[in-house]
Design a protein that fits this description.
Elements (H helix, E strand, L loop, with lengths): L3 H18 L3 E9 L2 E9 L2 E10 L4 H4 L5 H18 L5 E12 L2 E7 L8
Parallel strand pairs: 3-4
Antiparallel strand pairs: 1-2, 2-3, 4-5
Length: 121
């Protein structure tokens, strides 16, 4: 299996392709603000969606989303607020998690958790 970084990049590519098939427009990938990085920023039907992608080569698909801890959520939310400010977006936003679990080199399972967490703003 690929290295940790290669695995993450592969997962983000898979997630972006999945979202495009589902009708999302990819606006940004790996968007950074200070210490935070948002894996994908997408738009669908006027809703701005901030997506955290978690990719693993072992374990359970449902458990992977638990890797997004409160600290990571806080960083993503602060970066999302900055992105909205920079882009002058005043519409609806959502925070999603996409998990990808490799079964083998070319076989994987994907799960999309919409509204995975809510900003406490």
């Amino acid at each position: 299996m690929a290295s940790h970084n290669e695995l993450g990049q592969s997962g983000e590519k898979i997630a972006a392709e999945y979202l495009e098939r589902e009708g999302y427009q990819i606006l940004e990938s790996n968007w950074r603000h200070h210490r935070a990085e948002i894996d994908l920023i997408v738009l669908k039907e006027g809703v701005l969606v901030f997506v955290e992608v978690k990719t693993r080569s072992g374990g359970q698909l449902a458990d992977i989303a638990l890797a997004v801890d409160e600290n990571k959520k806080t960083l993503i939310i602060h970066a999302a607020v900055e992105y909205q400010y920079q882009k002058d977006h005043e519409g609806e936003v959502r925070f999603d998690i996409i998990t990808i679990l490799y079964q083998s080199e070319n076989t994987f399972d994907i799960q999309h958790f919409q509204d995975a967490f809510f900003p406490g703003l």
